Every structure is written in structure tokens, then in C-alpha cells.
Amino acid sequence: MVVAKNEAVRSVSVGDVIFATVLSCGRTVFRATYAGMSSVEDVIAALRRGISGIVSGPLTVSLRNGTQGWTLHRPMLRRTLIPEATQLTLF
What we know:
This protein is mainly beta.
């Protein structure tokens, strides 16, 4: 995780409950609650899997650790994966 100079390091313990919200253009497009994670990177990875195929483009991710009481806001860019074209032939 890259941490800006003015941003404190946020920790996640296995017993913490993390509330995640993803915003696109100011609108909530995904919301989830995670538990049993051991780092912010684990939460972000689970979040990426959760939004896969749902939304793409510039996003804002908000993580709130309900156990420790901190909130983290991060920009995220989710790219659309264009599937390979399939040619169908009729006989």
C-alpha cells in the first residue's frame, strides 16, 4: 500500500468489521461488509472481486473500520475488460 506523507497508516485486524462503499459519479454503486481480513490490501482485493463486472471507470472507495473507528477514502480506477470477439457461424 502506498501511503501519502499526510495520511496515517490504517491497520486492520482479523476481528475488525470493515464497511466498504464504492461511489461512481457521486452515486453508491456497491456496498459490502467484510470481517476476518488482516490488512487493508486484503479488503481492497475482496472489494475488487466484488465489483468485478459491475462497474468500471473512476471510482471513490470508502472504507470504515467499525471496530477501530477510522475511515479511509481512496480514488480507484476500474478498467473494463473487453472480452475477445467470438464468431458464430450458422450452417
